[in-house]
């Protein structure tokens, strides 16, 4: 099956595509954090585009639920309730587990090698991240070093290699995008654990152990959910903890 990636990270062609790519990356990296109001005049100046182009891009982000429009309140970067985020992690855990199981059964040797290479790139990226003085530019710098960085997502690759197009579509939907908005500032600590978990998933898939692959995939997402629940349990203003 031909590898697919999210439209927001395809190679930009038009000014609108370039802006969509940049704004999506800024949302995912926390440069535009959850809940922040979209002020057209400020963002048009920031991204050096016309307000017409910005409006078109905002509409495209709205379609992906990365920004939300509220009557009389304008447009803001998507901000979910704590309960909604937890529920999305629960659903994502089931989907990711199934994707890992099917990848163990259906992925080709070439695809498994691609997963290994991606895990190696993540490890190199984490080492580079740990040395950064300005963590806010981590994603931007990673893209400068390796343009393929933003074009591939470990979980989307596994879904693609599962051989089930519908599962891939579901994992690339709102659930995957929106849970990525709620990452925490301690990316280094969680990042090292995620690397270990990703490698366990890859090894289970390489061994063609469907049961272990599903278990490793579910445990990985469950770990993210549990960390989210722990960090937000006693903090009413939990959004300030996000990256």
Explain how this protein is built.
With about 240 residues, the protein is mainly alpha-helical. About 65% of the residues lie in helices and about 5% in strands. It has a two-stranded antiparallel sheet with strand order 1-2. Helix 7 packs antiparallel against helix 8. The protein is globular and about 55 Å long.
Using only CA atoms, what is the Rg?
Answer: 18 Å
Distance between the termini: 35 Å
Helix content: 55-70%
Q: Kindly report the average pLDDT value.
A: 80
How much of the sequence is in beta strands?
A: under 5%
What form results from the Cα inertia axes?
Answer: globular
Q: What is the domain tally?
A: 2
CATH class of the largest domain: Mainly Alpha
Low-confidence stretches: 1-12, 146-150
What's the CATH H-level superfamily name of the largest domain?
A: GntR ligand-binding domain-like
State the oligomer. single chain
Order of helices and strands: HHHEEHHHHHHHH
The name of the CATH architecture of the largest domain is Up-down Bundle
Q: How many individual helices?
A: 11
User: Which sheet architecture does the biggest sheet show?
Assistant: 2 strands, antiparallel
CATH fold name of the largest domain, please? Four Helix Bundle (Hemerythrin (Met), subunit A)
- Structural class call reads mainly alpha
Number of strands: 2
Strand order of the largest sheet: 1-2
């Amino acid at each position: 099956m031909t590898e697919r990636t999210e439209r927001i990270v395809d190679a930009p062609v038009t000014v609108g595509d370039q802006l969509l790519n940049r704004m999506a990356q800024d949302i995912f990296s926390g440069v535009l954090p959850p809940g922040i109001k979209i002020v057209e005049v400020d963002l048009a100046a920031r991204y050096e585009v016309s307000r017409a182009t910005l409006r078109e891009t905002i509409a495209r982000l709205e379609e992906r639920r990365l920004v939300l429009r509220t009557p009389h309140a304008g447009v803001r970067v998507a901000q979910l309730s704590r309960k909604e985020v937890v529920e999305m992690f629960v659903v994502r855990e089931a989907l990711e587990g199934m994707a890992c199981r099917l990848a163990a059964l259906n992925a080709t040797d070439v695809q498994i090698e691609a997963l290994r290479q991606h895990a190696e790139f993540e490890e190199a990226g984490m080492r580079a991240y740990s040395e950064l003085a300005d963590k806010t530019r981590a994603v931007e710098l990673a893209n400068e070093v390796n343009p393929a960085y933003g074009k591939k997502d470990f979980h989307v690759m596994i879904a693609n290699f599962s051989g089930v197009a519908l599962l891939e579509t579901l994992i690339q939907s709102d659930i995957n995008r929106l849970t990525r908005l709620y990452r925490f500032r301690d990316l280094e600590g969680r990042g090292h654990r995620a690397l270990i978990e990703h490698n366990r998933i890859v090894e289970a898939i390489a061994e063609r152990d469907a049961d272990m692959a599903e278990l490793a995939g579910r445990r990985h997402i469950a770990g993210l959910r549990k960390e989210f629940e722990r960090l937000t349990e006693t903090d009413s203003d939990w959004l300030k903890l996000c990256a």
